[in-house]
Structure formats: C-alpha cells, structure tokens
Amino acid sequence: MALRVIEIVTPRSDKDDVVRSLEEHRTDEGYVFWASPLERGEGISFRMILDVQDTENVLDKFEQLFAWTDKYRIVVYPAEATIPRLDKLASEDKNEFTPAPKESEPKKNRISREELYADVLDTTLLSRNYVILVLLSSLVAIIGLLRGNVAIIIGAMVLAPLLGPNVGLSLATTLGDKKLSMESLKTMTVGIALCFFLAAAAGLLLGIPHVTDELAARSVISYSDIILAIVSGAAGIVTVTQGVPTSLVGVMVALSLLPPLVASGLFFGAGMMPHALGAGMLFLANVICLNLAGVVTFILFGIQPLSWWDKEQAKNGAWRAAILWTLLLAALVVLMVYEGR
C-alpha cells in the first residue's frame, strides 16, 4: 500500500494542543509523527507518515480541528518508503500500554478526497494549454481517421483531453460541488465545440473521398459499445481513486471520446448526415456511460463531503444525477431500437 506524509504547520504556542490531538488519534489510525521547528517565524511543523487508506480519515479529523483558522496549514504529499516499516512500528506501539482504541471509521482503499479533488481539478480547468491540447489531438484524430491508421488514432486517444472534464463532472456531482460542476461543464463544452467544428471544417474543405474502415467503425453504435463504455468508465474512475495515472492510459484507449466526435464532425462537414448521426450517437453514449459509471463508482467508493449536511445534500444530488444519466441512456437505447441499430 502507498504511503502519505501529512504535514501540519502550527504556531509554537499551540504545540501542546497539537501533540495531544495527534496522540489521541494515533491509536485509531496507526501513524507515527514527529515535530521540528521552522527556521523562520514562530511556527512548528508536525509530520506524520501513514498508509494512503488512512489519509482521508486523518485529514477529516484534523481539518475539523485546525482548518477553521489561517494559523494552520495542512499539506499532503506522497512517500516512497519508510524504515522501519510502518506495520513494524505499529506492532511495536502495541507492546506499550495504551487505552483500548475507540471504534474508528473504516479504512478507505483509495487516495483521500482532497488528493482526488486536486488531481481531477488539474484536468478540469479551462486554460490555453487545454485548448491547444484539444486542437492538436483533434488534428491527430482527423489525420488518423482519414488515413485509416490505427496507431495515429490511438495517439489521439491517449491525449484524451475530453476525459478530464467528464471525470471532474462526475466527482463534482458526487460531492455536490457546484463550482467544479460549472467549471467541468464549461471546459467540456469548449472542448467538444472546438473538436467538432475543427473536424467539420476539415470535412468541408477536404471531403471524405474514401470512407476508411476506422471511419466506418465509428459511424455505427451497438449495444456492446454501451457495455464497453460503462465498464471502461468504471475502470477509469477506480484508477483515478487509486492515484495511478499510468493505468489510465489503457482506459483512454478503450473509452474513446475524441475519435467518434471527430468522425461525426468529418461526416457532417462532408454532408454525410446519416454517418454523422451514427458517430454522434456513439460519442453521446460514451459521455453518458462515463458519467453514469463515474457517479455510481464514486458513491460506492465512499466519496462524500466532510460535513453531515453537505453529505446529505450531495448524496441526494448524486443519486438524482445517476437517475438522469440512466434515463438519458435508456432514451438512447430506445432510439437505437427505433433505428434498428
């Protein structure tokens, strides 16, 4: 299991209170900690090392104690290893006399809510780099689809600029975070519009002299595509919650958002409307399935706000969103049946 270091910077005058709080919770969570004075000012730094699965429980407790004032700062960063090993330290602690531990919250086999939020936010914010990435990946996908080159298309899939905002929307829905929801929707809308209109312009100017196998494959949608999108979306969210970005590459390839959108734009620009509609339906199915799988997976992994009031609000909103995505998916399936796909 991965390790995390939590650093708490406090005024030296509060040292005794912080030590008492750290000692009080150590028997529940099983971490070790030490303190060192800062070179400048009157601050002192407490560092604790613990398993990543314990991070959110510890952060929640100390956020309630410390985060209400700007005198404190809590920072989380990864640790590669610790010697002696953390389990050995925990077993040594058990040899000492300690009070019977209180019933603690269940361990979470994932990174903390704060780490997850920070990771997702990086791929959700609308920026110049994001716009450039959308344009470049769209051009790569256009070339790959027109040439029927699988390797080029996979390159566009790996760039996957549309994946981040969709994951951000799923997380925002689960946490009831309106600001993140609006930012995700704005970024996703801009990305989709840029990709589609660039592809439509290419279709209008270049035409589609020959419908390659790769283009044809993305002009139709089947029920297996829906199952693949749901499974890949859930796998992608699990990967995100584990903090293993390298594992996300395979999901980017399996859950392709960009190629069907580009194919729809190319067909639209070339005036091939039935093909454009089919590719558009495939893209829409992937978006719906990704968000549905994302919301449900985040709920199952226990992603929720800190306060009980926010938990209730977010829980209701998350289930409403899951029902909405389910209804949209059902409507899409009905449309597929109507068109005989």
Mean pLDDT: 82
Shape: elongated
Number of DSSP strands? 4
Strand order of the largest sheet: 2-3-1-4
Please bin the fraction of helical residues: 55-70%
H/E series, N to C?
EHEEHEHHHHHHHHHHHH
Distance between the termini: 45 Å
Structural class, from secondary structure content? alpha+beta
The largest pleated sheet is described as: 4 strands, antiparallel
| Amount of beta strand | 5-15%
Sequence stretches where pLDDT stays below 50 over 5 or more residues:
88-102
- C-alpha Rg, in Å? 24 Å
Task: Give the number of helices.
Answer: 14
Domains, number: 2
Keyphrases for this structure?
2 domains; Alpha-Beta Plaits; alpha+beta; elongated; 4-stranded antiparallel sheet; single chain; 341 residues
